[in-house]
């Protein structure tokens, strides 16, 4: 978990998202089972960019809203057709809360494939997992160094930590080795 809380500002629901964006901010929302009502927010674009870079692995992010720290995870980032950020959703999480998250799969041993003149073609870069927020890893590593031409990696092949459930369909094709 990051040691610094990111400063996030409240916003009025009366504020038009396009006007917020003209001010160099991105509209968003914090929601969660343990919040009485969702919290509409706005984040300076440069702060949001730093936040997303520091959270490239889907970890818990402390957000400072009205001088109250809330631990959140990024649930959705919306971009326009040019790739510009236009909206962000955060989910507020409590310790020991069971949540669902999409976690990236990182492949180890790609240099061994390259030595065989093979490449890994990925189809599904994430697994959807469920478990206590503290037990869900930031990413899952899978060793592909011993794979050969046309070997496939399915969701069911990825070893998961104890007490973490796979929500992705087990037969989902994650990657295939090609020449």
From TrEMBL:
One of its GO terms (biological process) is translation. Residues 99-178 form the Large ribosomal subunit protein bL25 beta domain. CDD domains: Ribosomal_L25_TL5_CTC. GO terms for cellular component: cytosolic large ribosomal subunit. Pfam families: Ribosomal_L25p, Ribosomal_TL5_C. Residues 10-90 form the Large ribosomal subunit protein bL25 L25 domain. GO terms for molecular function: 5S rRNA binding; structural constituent of ribosome. Part of the 50S ribosomal subunit; part of the 5S rRNA/L5/L18/L25 subcomplex. Contacts the 5S rRNA. Binds to the 5S rRNA independently of L5 and L18. This is Large ribosomal subunit protein bL25. It comes from Clostridium cavendishii DSM 21758.
